[in-house]
Each structure stands twice: as structure tokens, then as C-alpha cells.
TrEMBL record:
<feature type="transmembrane region" description="Helical">
    <location>
        <begin position="166"/>
        <end position="188"/>
    </location>
</feature>
<keyword id="KW-0472">Membrane</keyword>
<feature type="transmembrane region" description="Helical">
    <location>
        <begin position="446"/>
        <end position="468"/>
    </location>
</feature>
<feature type="transmembrane region" description="Helical">
    <location>
        <begin position="375"/>
        <end position="399"/>
    </location>
</feature>
<dbReference type="GO" id="GO:0016020">
    <property type="term" value="C:membrane"/>
</dbReference>
<feature type="transmembrane region" description="Helical">
    <location>
        <begin position="136"/>
        <end position="154"/>
    </location>
</feature>
<feature type="transmembrane region" description="Helical">
    <location>
        <begin position="419"/>
        <end position="440"/>
    </location>
</feature>
<feature type="transmembrane region" description="Helical">
    <location>
        <begin position="108"/>
        <end position="130"/>
    </location>
</feature>
<feature type="transmembrane region" description="Helical">
    <location>
        <begin position="27"/>
        <end position="48"/>
    </location>
</feature>
<keyword id="KW-0812">Transmembrane</keyword>
<dbReference type="Pfam" id="PF00324">
    <property type="entry name" value="AA_permease"/>
</dbReference>
<feature type="domain" description="Amino acid permease/ SLC12A">
    <location>
        <begin position="26"/>
        <end position="475"/>
    </location>
</feature>
<feature type="transmembrane region" description="Helical">
    <location>
        <begin position="208"/>
        <end position="228"/>
    </location>
</feature>
<feature type="transmembrane region" description="Helical">
    <location>
        <begin position="350"/>
        <end position="369"/>
    </location>
</feature>
<feature type="transmembrane region" description="Helical">
    <location>
        <begin position="54"/>
        <end position="71"/>
    </location>
</feature>
<protein>
    <submittedName>
        <fullName>Amino acid permease</fullName>
    </submittedName>
</protein>
<dbReference type="GO" id="GO:0015171">
    <property type="term" value="F:amino acid transmembrane transporter activity"/>
</dbReference>
Amino acid sequence: MATRQGGKDDPSASDDRVQRNLKTRHVTMIALGGCIGTGLFMTSGSTIAKAGPGGALVAYAAMGLMVYFLMTSLGELATHLPTSGSFAAYNARYVDPALGFAMGWNYWLNWAITVAVDISTAALLIQYWLPHTPGWIWSLLVLVVIFLINALTVSTFGETEFWLSLIKVVTVIVFLVIGLAMICGIMFRPAVGLGNFTYKDAPFVGGFPAILNVFLIAGFSFQGTELIGVTAGESENPGKAVPKAINDVFWRILLFYILSIFVIAALIPYTSPNLLSSAQGDIAMSPFTMVFQRAGLASAASVMNAIILTSVLSSANSGVYASTRMLYALAKDHYAPAFFGHTTRHGIPMASLVATLVVSLATFAASIFGQRIYMWLVAASGLTGFIVWIGIALSHYRFRRAWVVQGHRVEELRYHAKLFPLGPILALILCIIVIGGQNIEAFVNWNWQEIGVTYISVPLVLALYLGYKIRYHTRIVPLKTMDLSGDPESL
């Protein structure tokens, strides 16, 4: 395996390229759909129960701001050099080839495992209506459907994600309209008002430790927003689509997450045991279900079950796409066997797709026949999103510094992140805090099994990084000699 610092596809492989057929509306909706999922529909209620309405709002606002900085960093990199390898390619080119290798393989494994979790969840959701049918049949059926969507064309994937994401967006908008009407007493009387914000110990419950705990939950809710970097490699016009998607995502995070938390907190007191139950996957206890029921929608639980099912399908679909493209990019950068870089005439990396689904299927089988193995596999993917975010912040910080050192002006960039270097430095610090704070109690009690289950993805990345570094004697890329060439099509 040769060492390459670049993220661009090998020019000699002109017949094995992905196709830029994702429209701007696809990229925008994929970016948005990536951050609206079960974290909002289910676990958002538990954040209010743990930290109170004020604590939940502070945590989500802080995490939303951090995610915005990360996305602007990724946007600057992705518009300059759009590639399916995304952050892994940027890690290799702007930090260290060994880091690109480690991040790419770790991200591929993470999504391949997550897809197995998603198809298991989808089966449970379908069994809500059909309780006497075997779940494994539904899981395999979902996997086949996801394979077909990803095996056709990238535009088929984009169109599917557009409509699945649109369902989630419309649901949140309807929820906000009904919720605000109930708070203000419009159509629904009497007005609920904002009394729950000062009920008992509200608005802040449990102080800073509770806010930190909720901060971790909020971070997982935003996982998947980095998908915008992967889609840039197949966008018709990345120079236009990526900045638009990033700017839209900021306002939509603010609108959907912050406003949704506000509405839930106003309508349901933080002491309600149902808010904690929602995090256990009880559809009837979802804060969205409870609000719709109070508004008089008798079939709210069934409707929310269907919507959460579309959310899980969207997650699985995006996961297969992201991991397939990452394995394809690893092959193009000589970090994986070359045959993973071959594509069909429609630009689909079929070998990468099949390999991803084989790992997903093996993980799913482990969930049935080897629970202990399955537990460690899922744990191995737990912190990957935050580790990827650290890589994005590092890459952007070093890219911008090299850009200036080599005599370029920031104005030359098609899109440039605001508040540099504050943005990537703040994101880097917060990500490290979030990773370190995942299970402090395990360290206090020196529970080695708990520590292993929680943090296994950290030594996994370090092992990949050090193994490649020792094998190929790579060095951190000097700023003065860093390859800053971009993609002419994106400029």
C-alpha cells in the first residue's frame, strides 16, 4: 500500500469515478436529514428531565454552535477539494497520511456497524404493528431495499434521502406549529404558557454536571452532519451546494432543535417520568407523541412510529452510502485494495457496497448469536463521530495556516469559514471534553470493563494511526510543502 497525501482520485482511473449527479436540493436535505433523527424524536425529552428546560436549551445551543463551526470548517475544505474521501482525505493531505488511513477505516467500520443497529431498530418499529412476525425477516428486507437504492445510481440515493428527510422536516414543522399554538392559547385553550420553565427547581436542574451530561446526549443527536463532506464528491456544483447546505443547516438546527426543546419544555414539566421513558425507545412516551395526543390526535403513537421508522431507514440509507464512498476513496488513495475503487457504469463502487453490507450482515448476525461480540462491536463505533470531528477541526486549522504561509489570500477560497481560528479551536476543545466526559464514573470506580466498552474506539484509532505510521514512516505534513491544489470544477 503506497502512501499518498492527496485526496483526489487517481487520474489514471478515469473509468472508475463516481458521478456528480447530486443536485443542490439533495445535498441540502441530506445535510439537514443527517441531524434530525431519533435523537430529536426520542431522547430530547430525557435531556429536559435531567437538566431542566434551561439546562437542555443551553446544552443544545452550545452543541449546535460547535457543530456549525465544524460544518463551516468542512465547507471550506469540501468546496476547495470535493472528494468522496472527505475528512479522511483532508486528514491525510493536511495533517498526516497515517491519520487519513486511521480515520477512513474507522469511519467505514463505524457506519457498517451502525447500519446493523438501524436495521434491527427498523424491525422493532415494524413489529409495533405486526408483533407476531419474526424481526429478522424485516431486518433482512430493509437491508435488501437499502442495497437496491444504493446499487442503482447516486441520484436514486439522493432522491430517496430527499423525501425521507422531507417527512422528518414536515413533522417537526407541524409539531412546532401545534406546540406554539398550545403555549399561546391559539385554537387550544386555555393557554399553557411558560409556567413549566419555573416549576419547582426549573429552569436549571442539577447544575453544571447535569448540563455536561446533557451536552453529551446533544452531541450524539448531531452525529451525521459530516455527511455533507462525503456528498460533496458527487455534487453537481459543490461550490454552490455545500455553502448553501451549511448556511441552511445552521438556521435549521436553531429552528428545529432549539425551538423543539423549548416547546417540549413548555408543554411537559421536567418532572414527568415519561420524558425519561422516551429514551428507552417507548414510542408512546416520545415527547412528540405526547404533544400530538394532547392536541387531540388519537393515533399519535402510530403516526410517530411511522415517522421514526422513516428516520431509521434514512439513517441506514445514509450509512451505507457514506461507508461505501469512504471505502471507495480509501482504495483510490491506496489505503485499501484497488478493486474497492472500481465502479459500475453508473458510478457505483459495487465492491465497496457489497463489502459494507457483508460487515453489516455479520454484525447483525452477532446481535442474534453472539451478544457479547455485538456489544463490543457497537461500542467500537460509539465515539467515532466525535473523533471524526476532531480530525475535521485539525485539518481545517492546518489547511488555513498553510494557505497563508504559502502566500495565498483567504479571499481566493470559494468559501471560507468565519471566525478562524476560534471556530476549529473551540470545536477541537469541546470534542475532547465530550469524549473525555463520556463515562467519568467508570474512571472514578476503576471499572475496566466499563472503560473499555465506552472508550474502545479511541485506542482503535490510535492503533490504526500508529500501525500505519510505523509501517510507512509517515510524518506530519509541513505547512510550507503541503499540497494545497484544489478541484478546478469547484472554483
